[in-house]
Amino acid sequence: MSKETDSPRLRLAVQKKGRLADDTFDLLAKCGLKVRHGRSRLFARIDELPIDVLLVRDDDIPELVASGAADAGIVGGNVFEEDRLTRDGEGAVIADALGFSRCRLCVAVAKGEAYAGPAYFSGKKVATSYPGLLQSWLEESGVKDAQIVLMHGAHEIAPRLGLADAICDIVSTGATLDTNGLKVADTIYRSEALLIAAPGLDVAKAEMLGALKGRMRGALASQHAKYVMMNAPRSAIPAITAVLPGADSPTILELAGEGDMVAIHSVCNEDVLWEHLAELKSVGASAILVLDIDKMLN
Ligand code: ATP
Ligand code: ZN
User: Which residues belong to any copy of the ATP phosphoribosyltransferase catalytic domain (predicted)?
Assistant: First the structure.
């Protein structure tokens, strides 16, 4: 028997090609996980951890994970929530929110329409491929008699064709809406990529997922994190700590032969801007250095 069949591998479903795929492969690379493919094939391998990557369409990811065909997946919150709202059986569970591939699901109406709130949709037809999310928003907004027209693409032309009065779709810049004589009326859902897991993973796989999640958190956190160093008089420490964005308690080091002066080192978990540096200077800091952090494990 080969060694490989002894040790279980985590099967991770990701989008093969598309807006989510680029960010997903970037993240895996930042986690030090090089995916070996053939993106055209169904499977790819990660060498550094016992993970097999399943390359699929994003719409299939929630079902693959819910059914246990994949142990985990990376999918847009929009697709995950739509699946959760429209499925019968037990669904996948959210293991982590990943903060990338952010987008919003909006309802849009003709530019000339006066839109004063969700009541507008009473008695109207709305074209969407997100019937679950739209229905739940309409219900929460107290609209009972809107009609949902299911479409799988090219929603923007539905109003012009007389198929619907309005649409509900993912909006990024609004340019497509504009070209089709539409405008955003309301945002009904804000989406980001999610790490999802099969319900009831066994202990070994749950541990592997935990390790993957730890690496992802580290990679995502270090994207914005900076290592900041400066010199300052000891008395300025409280003022400096107050200015540092998203910092834990700093490390204070004596400066040899400099009397009251100390070196202050800190990890900042948010973007460090020029304004912050100017402020640090004004409260007494000098020789300020800001360094990128490659990896971080909290
Ligand atoms: P597939 O062939 O896998 O079905 P698709 O055409 O359905 O691909 P993409 O356009 O690649 O999907 O988008 C995948 C996901 O990326 C979306 O479901 C959404 O979560 C996210 N996303 C981020 N930004 C945008 C955007 N500007 N437009 C559409 N989706 C976006
Ligand atoms: Zn899709």
Answer: 57-211
- When divided into structural domains, the chain yields a total of 3
The alpha helices in 194-290, defined as continuous H runs, are 203-224, 237-243, 274-282
What spacing in Å lies between the alpha carbon of 180 and ligand 2's midpoint?
Answer: 22
229, 242 contact by CB (below 8 A):
no
**CA 109–ligand 1 middle distance (angstroms):** 22
Q: What is the domain-level CATH number for residue 78? A: 3.40.190.10
8 & 126 share domain = no
The boundaries of the domain holding residue 159 are 103-189
In tens, the pLDDT along 38-74 reads: 555 787 878 788 899 999 999 999 999 999 999 999 9
Residue 298 placed within a domain: no
**Atom 15 in ligand 1: residue holding the nearest Cα:** 20
Residue ID of nearest Cα to ligand 1 atom 3: 57
Q: What is the pLDDT of residues 241-272, one digit of tens each?
A: 999 987 888 999 999 888 899 999 999 987 78
Which DSSP category does 250 fall into? P
